[in-house]
Amino acid sequence: MAENNFPPLPPFIPLKPCFYQDFEEIPEQHRSMCKKIYYLWMLYSATLVVNFVGCMAWMFAGGGVTNFGMSIMWLILFTPCSYVCWFRPVYKAFKTDSSFNFMAFFFIFMAQVAISIIQAIGIPGWGVCGWLGTIVFFGTSIFASIIMLIPTIMFTAVAILSFVALTTVHNLYRGSGGSMSKAQEEWTTGAWKNPHVQEAAQQAAMGATHGAMQPQDPSNTPNYSNQTLIQNEI
Q1: CA atoms within 13 A of residue 180's CA, in its CB half-sphere
Q2: 30, 55, 86, 186, 193 from 94: Cα distances, Å
Q3: ∠ CA 74-65-127, rounded to 5°
Q4: Rounded to two decimals, what is the model's pTM?
Q5: How does DSSP assign 49-99, residue by residue?
Q6: Tell me: the pLDDT tens digits for 133-181?
Q7: Which range is most confident: 45-59, 60-74, 191-205?
Q8: In angstroms, rounded to a whole number, what is the distance separating the alpha carbons of residues 104 and 36?
Q9: Residue 25 gets which letter from DSSP?
Q10: Where is this region: Disordered (predicted)?
Q11: To the nearest 10°, the Cα dihedral for 133, 135, 138, 141?
């Protein structure tokens, strides 16, 4: 089994990578699309970092600490969660042509698209430098608003690219014959596709077959002919 290599952590950090990621194991016809979604995740993570800086400028210019505190939560929580919750499912879906992983990606990524749109709008107090917060704050501090405008544009780009990615992957999946019923079938039989379960089942079946084919001990086999002779003499 390949050793985990993601995230690529420096040697001095006493933590080990949690995932194995190698785009060479993705089929060639889907490799480019899988990489694009990975780059989209990187863009979203970078946007959360820039948003943190924008909310810091917002706070120092008199915008309050609520947005700054919430921006920390967005950064710490959504950077790893977005990777685990929607990139890993689509990575495994492209790798194994798994309808169940495709469905998991679709349902979670639809929520991601909605979140990106909300972040681009930028409701004040939600910890994001969106259009509403940036435009309103122009009257207070032009310098801070210009800094806030950068993550606002990035959130807008993420929302648009996320919608395009969702539509593209959905078209690819439906074009390959995928459906909800196929995903349900995989869910139902998923346990039997687990290699460890298959190995245990094969060992049990081989054990049962071996036991059935094993010759019986003659001493344990009842002698019906002798019993019949004794009954006739009586």
Answers
A1: 2
A2: 6, 37, 12, 15, 17
A3: 30
A4: 0.77
A5: HHHHHHHHHHIIIII-SHHHHHHHHHHHHHHHHHIIIIIHHHHHHHHHT-H
A6: 999 999 899 999 999 999 999 999 999 999 999 999 999 888 766 555 5
A7: 45-59
A8: 18
A9: G
A10: 207-234
A11: 20
120 to 117, 126, 148, 220: CA distances (angstroms): 5, 11, 11, 81
CA 39 from centre of chain: 15
Check whether 222 has a pLDDT greater than 70.
no
SS3 track for 167-230: HHHHHHHHHCCCCHHHHHHHHHHHHHHCHHHHHHHHHHHHHHHHHHHCCCCHHHCCCHHHHHHH
pLDDT at 176: 67
Q: Tokens 């919608």, residue?
A: 163
Give residue-wise pLDDT tens across range 23-65.
999 999 999 999 999 999 999 999 999 999 999 999 999 887 9
Q: How far is residue 29's CA from residue 35's CA, in Å, rounded to a whole number?
A: 12
